[in-house]
């Protein structure tokens, strides 16, 4: 089916196929076309341009008068497969406990793992599908989903199988990441190496054999997995050709970035605490730094020093981190707004970070992340708005009129 979108007030993030990411000062530039058309055939963008050059023999015409079109958000870091919620821990934090104190009391990730282990595949699938549908209506058009709330061979496979079924049942591009090293299960409290051996010798061979995983992740942090643990797991994952996306520098800078860049990680995520050595290793790498401002907002921890990252000539991606503990929200519109308000990104930088750079952080810049001939027809039609900067400015409003994924209205 051919669809022609006309009278688009501004078509945002129009780029050539060769642009896979934008870095440093280039992030300040957001290429757009005013008074434009967009031509879609089946699931693909086939053309765009100024209205005076719009084709005139198309039956299926959608008038976008006063509205803008953006590429959909690319959310490169989520944990949307989880069971139940942790609103009691939220109240505990309001009353003064820290995230770390709650985790030390057996709450946190282990709390979610217990719930998930007790939840059936069907129930877990339904809860996760509801979250996926919610974020699609909020404009997310490509997403990464991690395991890591299973922490046993069976429960990790259950999570990854839920992600596989989501991939089969939804047309949105989904990448799945194995995060067996998310927390140390209580039964391994006195023998971390035994759990790492389980990850390396049982989980990794099984999940790769069943083709359940695209990337590998490790929570490299004090009290979770050390730099040495991380390196062991990365070495093992290399044998299966898995690239890494690593949780680093959320609370402490312990050398995770050095090891991640040495292993050519696709991304390093969180980075709330970032020192000059970390910046140095990032500058000499192809690794995408990923900031998760909704997590900082929710936990009240520092925001990733995004200005420092971009002003050092580096790229930056933005993602939601949707999970039950540190970020119970997958709203990428809020992520973009928080990046502007709290991390001092300009709207242009934030939109680049949440689209093309997010796509790079999932290795799918050739498919999504910009309005480009040949890419998937995944885009947001806004309500009538005065300018694209109105999206982060008007941070509490829903400014989305409709979302298209693979050329179909969600
Ligand atoms: N920090 C590690 N993992 C998640 C939070 C997990 C949880 O609290 O359930 C994050 O990215 O914030
Ligand atoms: Zn996370």
Automatic annotation (TrEMBL):
Predominant place of localization: cytoplasm
EC number in record: 3.5.2.7
Domain Amidohydrolase-related: 68-409
Binding site for 4-imidazolone-5-propanoate: 86, 149, 182, 250, 326
Keywords: Cytoplasm, Histidine metabolism, Hydrolase, Iron, Metal-binding, Zinc
Family: Belongs to the metallo-dependent hydrolases superfamily. HutI family.
HAMAP family, A to Z: HutI (MF_00372)
Name of the protein: Imidazolonepropionase
